[in-house]
Design brief:
2 copies of one chain form a homodimer.
Chain A lengths: L3 H9 L3 H7 L1 E5 L1 H8 L5 E6 L1 H6 L7 E4 L2 H7 L8 E6 L13 E5 L5 H13 L4 E4 L9 H6 L8 E4 L2 H6 L5 E10 L9 E5 L16 E4 L11 H14 L2
Parallel strand pairs in A: 2-3, 5-6, 5-9, 6-7, 8-9, 8-10
Antiparallel strand pairs in A: 1-4, 2-4
Chain lengths: 244, 244
């Protein structure tokens, strides 16, 4: 059974300040908890039904709590979860190298957690495991982000950093979506580079335009003024991968 | 100024039952309200700042109310709207013909309003103006759907109907995404047909599989198990349009 203190602890992690303080985050739902258990994240706690616990690999988990569906439904941020919930240890915000023959995403203030989660899931589908994000981008460890990734949070690495400085130190091609650029259906993306995705409302920051080496455009056949940021990411990824 | 009765009326339209009763729906935000005013929807009410009203074309609007940003922020479902809000008249749920050389989407229980709105916006970008939806699909007139379409609600027609019956009466090719199907990068989509998009959790209903004439697959280059429904729609649309 979940104690009052643990329920309070899990609920506190819905708030970024407490996640930062505790260096912990919540994972909800059977599929996402299984992905967490199979990942290299340290797992602090698993609360789940007896049925789930019987099948899960719980080695190294400090605190395993058998819980009823009703208890689980009440504790998380999502009402539909009645099977499993876990608390993982956050990883440090550490940089990584992007190889010359590798693609990575760069997110310029993607503020909507659902969009960020969907972008992470899409990147994972297309074999892109590295994402560089501005500090104004939604928090990777937000419950809605984690849930929207559908488990891909365990495979995709995200590094928060000021983007101007990042681009200054980079020698990669930078692809950025603009209204007038090269058609993504015909451009040669080459073997690697950075795909810069602009903010949901204002697109790519004016201050970052000078770092874009290749302006690209997703052809429009109808009337909508723009595409959702996660949708644009997917269409670009599909086009750059098909060329391989 | 917005009267208490009008605030109550607008707020009631957040609930489907009252939308149905009043045959009215809410549109929030400057861009979406402008799209509504430029559409063939009947506009019952516009509440907006003096600045917005001075620029908008309000011919035929029964009720125009000058409002302060604070009033507008308090009334809608989205806190960021401080400029304009409108009430439109719902259109009847009427069917339409899909031509032989036209593509339309068919939605099999897309339950998430954000996904439905994003699908409508994406369809509009790709020049697809007709969507057939199962009756379990989210309500087109839900505020979150309308907002997520970013104005495309005014151009894309959605018809709710039981899908089995619809397919029985149709002679179109039906493309459906499965794990093992023809690669969307190489399949010939031809000149027209129906693109069937499955539910977020369970994909395409088992009962509809017999109507699918062409099983298709979005190639995967990484590890994610699936793509978000709106993302899959976009990738399919991008591939079928590039062939034209």
């Amino acid at each position: 059974m979940l104690s009052k203190a643990k329920i309070k602890f899990v609920k506190s992690l819905q708030i970024k300040k407490y996640r930062k303080q505790e260096q912990c985050f919540v994972v909800e739902g059977a599929k996402s908890v299984l992905e967490l258990l199979n990942s290299d994240f340290e797992v602090v706690m698993v609360a789940a039904t007896a049925e789930f616990l019987a099948k899960a690999s719980l080695q190294g988990v400090a605190d395993v709590i058998e819980s009823t569906p009703a208890e689980l439904a009440g504790i998380g941020g999502f009402q539909t979860n009645e099977t499993a919930l876990a608390v993982g240890k956050m990883k440090p915000n550490s940089s990584f190298a992007v190889a010359e023959d590798e693609f990575a995403l760069v997110l310029d203030d993607i503020r909507d957690p659902g969009n960020l989660g969907t972008i992470i899931r899409t990147a994972d589908w297309y074999g892109i495991q590295k994402i560089i994000a501005s500090e104004e981008t939604a928090d990777f460890y937000n419950s809605k982000v984690i849930t929207s990734t559908m488990g891909s949070f365990a495979r995709v690495h995200l590094f928060y950093t000021p983007l101007s400085e990042y681009f200054q130190d980079s020698s990669h091609r930078v692809f950025g979506a603009y209204l007038k650029g090269q058609d993504v259906h015909t451009i040669d993306f080459g073997k690697g580079g950075l795909i810069l995705i602009g903010n949901e409302s204002r697109g790519i920051s004016a201050g970052l335009e000078k770092f874009v080496t290749d302006k690209i455009t997703i052809p429009r056949y109808g009337e909508a003024e723009s595409l959702n940021a996660a949708i644009a990411t997917a269409v670009i990824c599909d086009n750059l991968k098909r060329g391989w």
